[in-house]
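Figure 3 (text version): structure tokens given as input.
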């Protein structure tokens, strides 16, 4: 009798897994557009370097960007994602005072070239508290891996500060349809602490072309940084966003 009950329980468990997988969906989200620097303040080392601006004292160029995300939605509630989001901003100019950066002195009025890279790779999970035809409300956690550096060149010298690290973030998603083919979307990842902060927030309009294809257009901003003995850096970037989402 116990064996029969165990077998029945196993059969029901397998049926439940199969049912969930039958309701699963693979989602590919590709985004791109133009990125503009708001502010980008740097001091490295954090306690002894010279604080200067990579957006005001050095002219940062607007540039194109892209990011891609693969997601797997199970039973309309559990959403697993992997995101690749590269970002590189270059600039040039002269600063009217000596700059100490990464223990290298760049004399005043030296023609400088700068590069700011902040590539991130993110693995996330989101639970949808609400998920129906009218909209989605969910939240979860993201593990961000950053591959970042700041580089300054000029006067026959170069200095580079690199950083590879892990940051846990909270994620959220709110979307709803205004009419059957048009909706709004607000989603992002964020966290703040004494060591620093990070915000990556998107607001967009979504046009539902079909059940498996949609397009979005909107505005994203990334803001954050850190302040410690090794590094002081706080940045704000504005993104003009366009993208598509495919669903199978």
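Below: residues designed for each position.
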């Amino acid at each position: 009798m116990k064996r029969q009950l165990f077998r029945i329980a196993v059969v029901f468990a397998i049926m439940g897994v199969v049912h969930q997988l039958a309701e699963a969906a693979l989602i590919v989200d590709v985004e791109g557009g133009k990125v503009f620097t708001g502010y980008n303040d740097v001091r490295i080392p954090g306690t002894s370097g010279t604080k200067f601006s990579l957006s005001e004292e050095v002219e940062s160029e607007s540039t194109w960007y892209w990011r891609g995300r693969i997601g797997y939605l199970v039973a309309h509630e559990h959403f697993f994602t992997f995101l690749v989001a590269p970002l590189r901003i270059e600039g040039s100019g002269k600063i009217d005072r000596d700059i100490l950066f990464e223990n290298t002195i760049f004399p005043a009025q030296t023609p400088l070239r700068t590069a700011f890279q902040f590539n991130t790779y993110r693995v996330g999970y989101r639970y949808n508290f609400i998920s129906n035809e009218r909209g989605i409300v969910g939240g979860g956690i993201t593990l961000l891996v950053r591959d970042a550096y700041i580089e300054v060149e000029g006067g026959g010298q170069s200095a580079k500060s690199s950083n590879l690290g892990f940051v846990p973030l909270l994620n959220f998603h709110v979307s709803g349809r205004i009419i059957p083919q048009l909706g709004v979307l607000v989603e992002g990842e964020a966290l703040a602490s004494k060591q620093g902060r990070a915000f990556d927030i998107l607001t967009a309009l979504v046009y539902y072309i079909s059940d498996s294809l949609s397009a979005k257009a909107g505005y994203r901003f990334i803001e954050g940084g850190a302040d410690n003995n090794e590094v002081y850096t706080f940045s704000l970037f504005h993104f003009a966003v366009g993208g598509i989402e495919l669903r199978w």
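The first helix runs from residue 2 to 22.
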